[in-house]
Input
Amino acid sequence: MYRYGMFVHRHARVFLVLAALLLGASVALGIGAFGKLKGGGFTDPDAESTKAEQVATAEFGGQANLIFLVHARSDTADSAAVVQVGRQLAGGLAQEKYVDNVVSYWTTKASALRSTDGADGLVLAHVAGDDDQSSTRAKTLIARYAVDGAAVTVKAGGRAAASVDINDQVTTSLIRAESIAVPITTLLLIWVFGSLVAAALPLVVASVAIMGTFAELFVLGSVTDVSVFAINLTTALGLGLGIDYSLLLVSRFREHLAEGDPVGEAVGRTVATAGRTILFAAVTVASALAALLVFPQYFLRSFAYAGIGVVAVSALSALVVMPALLSALGARVNRGKVPWSAAALGGESRFWRRTATAVMRRPALFAIPAVLVFAFLAAPLTHLAFGTPDQGVLPKNTASRQVSDRLAAGFGGQADQITVVTTGSVPKAGLTAYAKELSTLPGVVRVDSGAGSFRSGTATAPAGDPSALTRPEAHEFVVSTSLVGKSSAAQDLVRAVRAVAPPAGADRLVGGADAELVDTSHTIGRLLPVGLALVVATSFLLLFLFTGSVVQPLRALLFNALTLSATLGALVWIFQDGHLASVLSFTPRPMDMSMTVLFFCIAFGLSMDYEVFLISRIKELHDHGVPTTEAVSSGLARTGRIVTAAATLLAVSLFGFGASTVSFLQMFGIGSGLAILFDATLIRAVLMPVFLRVAGAANWYCPRPLRRIYARVAVAEA
Output
């Protein structure tokens, strides 16, 4: 690493020219990434509910994913003016190229399509295509048909409309988050570095990281499905990690300059020490994000693509562009000083030395309250519940959310349905018996089938044309329920439906929103232990190779468990229990399962990032013969300010998503920011010094066989 640093110093101009050319190419490619990314991706493509939807679409034209709610301004849905609008709307949709299964209250007179107060009527349609295609097509249809008139207001809802609203809100949220984070981050950079020139360097590294990752997403989006939400992670992590790595390099470079090193020597020593730390930190974060690749949902896999890419490009930018910039600037890195610049020139922090000394002098006095704080914050985990994204993640003033709320409140509570599809030839008697049995299950309001409609085992007036639900080799059963969608009772009903034996000679698939939640829970629950095992194993291995100790990796994993438990408990209290709902303007709902998994991997990786930052300096001092307690005090004095500054800057970038209008983005941003701050304060300032003080010489314990392995393969400083 030292030789590499000296090489970059000697050829700094060449490296800067090449970096500028690559940045230009990345910008040219990266701009196109937005057109390649997709919405959706929350479901397992091999799940039963997914297959049920595919069969239903192929045989019956698919379930309604676009719903137009026609509201009579001053009359009822049966008034002449409203009838005319409703029929025109249904007729226009029926003529659209990618629309099928158009069903309207005004053509069927089905009571289920008319609100209980008579003011609203529904037009249902299925927009063909995958999640991304249906969303794009629905956006055009909504602009064309969701138009208010003199007698009515027309609003669009359903899954396709919700996808349109979520994508629009994500774009708005990204702009809002960056407009908040970038100015605050810039001011904090000036405050931390004390120099306008030095403060500008992290923004250069972050820009290269973000645009380089956008280029990667453009390439990946051209060959596989990548979620549009990856953009949010790219900007937040690119800005945060670019600042983190730059802080470490610039601070170490200034330290060596202050010691009297020539510029070239300062660059070489900086890359050999801080550069090595960055290399290990980047690999550790990337390995945590790689665990997302075990999940089949491309929503989660996309964050692995984006996360690994932004970590790799951030590290590459920090280890290539930053040394070249430091070589070109030399002592001019301190230009543009502000009044407090003397504290940022690379010396020790008296505050952090005193803090470490005080904590290690009275370990129990500080450690016990810190552990109790973590335990208190983790307490809400006892009633943790999971859900999947729907209109509930949107603000109440969005059209699809308003339609969803109206369906739940104004249409007899029959807004939620379970779809059952059977394949194979089944006689009418078999269809009747199966539909009757389904209609007797607790929570079922009615079952519509090709054999008719049933309530509690008794035939009732059909809601539509029964022949539309039957084919020679396929049959559809629409199970309407009054249960709250995504609730434990609704999930139990899905399991009960699946427990009912299908008609003889038929294969059965169960789908719908509640079935998707059951299947998603099963998939993530089945694969989560695999992902956790990969994260733990790779983190342990990397920290062992970094420290040569088996104790330090175990300590780091334990502290990460404390941080993640406390943060997740706080998120349950905020978002599931809704204690800050009025402040953040969201609707309390179960924790989004996919976003919780993402939060875990991101928070774990970033915590390990700061672990490497701090333990590297402590180990460096220990390897030079400094006693453990002094190594901890000096290490914190040298790096505590850097870790705190880096954590604060990254937290600001993530907290910017708290201003989002999509609740699961708020949860991700606030949760990740809290985890970083917990880690940088209670863990690094209190529990870590206490542990290192109490463990003493045992901190660096390594069994003899592993010691020999470490001596052979460890990437250690010369």
The domain at 1-35+194-347 is CATH 1.20.1640.10 (Multidrug efflux transporter AcrB transmembrane fold). Residues 158-193 form the longest helix (36 residues). The chain has a mean pLDDT of 87. The chain is about 65% helix and 10% strand.
